[in-house]
């Protein structure tokens, strides 16, 4: 039977599935339905392939089989000797430690693995009993494996402590780690110096733990040590190689200045030049640590000092790291938005070091105890980064102005208004008198009102340090303990201030008020005035009540204010009276207050 001729529909009729349709559409019988081939197709290796195929430089499953003795560091840094009790699961091996605990350690955390095939693993030595792989306690209370591991660990720890206590300078009586390092150099494990007499780093292959133990427990030079290791192995009922390998590992692990650590429990001896450089770095670090601890002790003494013996606020602004710590604590106390993450971490470390609670309130209390802040501290200026002190160039500029007055650029156009009776009305305790008022009667019942403001441009030119500082401040700031002037007080309180009885430069504004309270004309310009009297609001009210007709200027100002108020009320203004509060803070220590 002959087959039917092929048509474009026959492949789709053979199957109803979408996958078969795709396969049938590119089967070579229909070239027009083939997918387009990708042009210029090149193979590029994955950037992660190198990382995925790189050899891991730590012990694997073959090195940590059941019954293998391994060593690692606990979270607190102490060395732990253990035996593997089960196969690794997800790169974590179950172990029984020398103190009888059951743990699971990651493969990459294993720093020591007793090599097999040389009697160093407990179950490899034919002369000793194999280690039990369970943690069941023996009649004595602890498992037999834990007791045997504990004996090995105790010997290694005792040997390391005895070596750390040795400080003899004689080569024959030098510490054991130093003697082992010298033997490693003499054996040619590492070149001491380059042939060109230039010290170089070691390029030799690292030593495994067996080779390292051979240098530590040298039969000819360390007979007493070898004998003690045999006794320890007999007491622990383990192979002597395990005792020596683990003791050498623990000993050399505490000597980073002489031996460089590598993966899989290997070490290489450093060159003499490297040892000297490492010792110099260690001495420098020790000196820095001692200096840091002395600085912390100084901070602790200030915190524990009685209230009357606190150091001045600038005591810790000494340019050292202590200043950075105190500034970080201040930034933390100011709250979010005023500190960086580094300052927050430094402040938390500061508080934790002295046992204080972690919080902004605790930081403020610590600054008060330190003497940096007082019991009440105005934080609004600090939170807005308002400068509380003038920079040195601004202070130098102010001193130069006091010593020699700059030329008056407006002397040709400055109007002489010293004929007017000017009154400076300010609050009690005002240091900077920066404004004054006056008035004079005109024909037709009109009143000319004058407002005079101290002319700062007479003393401070554009582009000078004082002008830049004044621009950044904008105005004088007032807080319960005093004032933050826009200019240094010697300039603001003496040169610029409208001191009574002295001719002072000012910027004057005048306006004519008619009988209806409307303004007819105005003028603004530089002037020279002389303040007749400086008074508070209470004193002005008393002067008008007790001395009528004597202060014509004040009475004209009151009349002008009345006219303006009536005009505003006729135009629909609403007079809302709000209570005013005046606070006066007294400083117990200084006996002074500020409104």
TrEMBL record:
Limits of the RNB domain: 414-593
GO BP terms, alphabetized: mRNA catabolic process
Positions with biased composition (Low complexity): 15-25
Sample GO molecular function, one term: 3'-5'-RNA exonuclease activity
Designated name of the protein: RNB domain-containing protein
Domain of life: Eukaryota
SUPFAM superfamilies per record: Nucleic acid-binding proteins
GO CC, any one term: P-body
Chain residue ranges for the region called Disordered: 1-27, 121-143
């Amino acid at each position: 039977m002959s087959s039917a001729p092929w048509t474009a529909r026959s492949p789709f009729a053979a199957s109803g599935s979408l996958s078969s349709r795709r396969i049938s559409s590119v089967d070579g019988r229909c070239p027009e339905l083939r997918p387009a081939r990708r042009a210029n197709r090149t193979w590029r290796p994955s950037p992660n392939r190198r990382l995925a195929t790189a050899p891991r430089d730590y012990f694997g499953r073959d090195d940590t089989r059941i019954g293998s003795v391994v060593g690692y560091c606990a979270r607190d840094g102490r060395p732990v000797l253990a035996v593997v009790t089960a196969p690794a699961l997800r790169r974590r091996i179950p172990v029984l430690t020398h103190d009888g605990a059951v743990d699971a350690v990651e493969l990459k955390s294993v720093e020591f693995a007793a090599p097999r095939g040389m009697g160093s693993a407990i179950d490899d030595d034919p002369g000793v009993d194999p280690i039990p792989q369970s943690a069941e306690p023996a009649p004595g209370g602890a498992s037999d494996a834990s007791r045997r591991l504990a004996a090995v660990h105790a010997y290694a720890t005792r040997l390391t402590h005895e070596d750390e206590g040795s400080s003899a300078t004689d080569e024959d009586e030098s510490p054991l780690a130093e003697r082992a390092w010298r033997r490693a150099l003499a054996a040619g494990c590492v070149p001491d110096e380059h042939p060109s007499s230039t010290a170089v780093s070691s390029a030799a292959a690292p030593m495994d733990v067996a080779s390292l133990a051979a240098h530590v427990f040298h039969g000819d030079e360390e007979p007493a040590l070898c004998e003690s290791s045999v006794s320890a192995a007999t007491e622990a009922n383990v192979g002597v190689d395990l005792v020596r390998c683990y003791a050498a590992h623990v000993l050399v692990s505490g000597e980073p200045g002489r031996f460089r650590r590598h993966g899989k429990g290997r070490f290489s001896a450093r060159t003499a030049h490297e040892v000297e450089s490492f010792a110099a770095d260690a001495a420098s670090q020790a000196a820095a640590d001692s200096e840091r601890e002395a600085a912390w002790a100084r901070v602790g003494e200030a915190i524990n000092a009685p209230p009357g013996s606190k150091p001045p606020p600038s005591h810790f602004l000494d340019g050292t790291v202590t200043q950075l710590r105190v500034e970080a604590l201040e930034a933390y106390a100011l709250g979010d938005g005023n500190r960086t993450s580094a300052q927050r971490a430094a402040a938390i470390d500061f508080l934790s070091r002295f046992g204080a609670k972690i919080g902004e309130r605790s930081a403020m209390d610590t600054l008060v105890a330190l003497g940096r802040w007082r019991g009440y501290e105005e934080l609004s200026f600090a939170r807005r980064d308002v400068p509380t002190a003038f920079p040195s160039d601004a202070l130098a500029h102010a001193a130069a102005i006091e010593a020699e007055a700059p030329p008056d650029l407006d002397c040709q156009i400055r109007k002489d208004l010293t004929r007017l009776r000017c009154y400076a009305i300010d609050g009690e305790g005002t240091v900077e008198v920066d404004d004054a008022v006056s008035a004079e009667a005109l024909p037709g019942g009109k009143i000319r009102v004058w407002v005079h403001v101290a002319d700062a441009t007479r003393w401070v030119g554009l582009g000078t340090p004082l002008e830049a500082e004044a621009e950044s401040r904008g105005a004088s700031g007032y807080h319960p303990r005093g004032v933050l002037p826009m200019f240094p007080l010697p300039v603001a309180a003496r040169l610029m201030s409208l001191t009574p009885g002295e001719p002072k430069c000012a910027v004057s504004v005048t306006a004519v008020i008619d009988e209806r309270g409307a303004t007819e004309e105005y003028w603004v310009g530089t002037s020279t005035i002389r303040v007749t009297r400086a008074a508070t609001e209470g004193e002005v009210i008393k002067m008008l009540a007790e001395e009528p007709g004597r202060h014509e200027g004040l009475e004209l100002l009151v009349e002008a204010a009345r006219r303006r108020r009536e005009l505003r009320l006729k135009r629909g203004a609403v007079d809302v009276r709000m209570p005013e509060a005046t606070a006066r803070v007294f400083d117990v220590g200084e006996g002074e207050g500020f409104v």
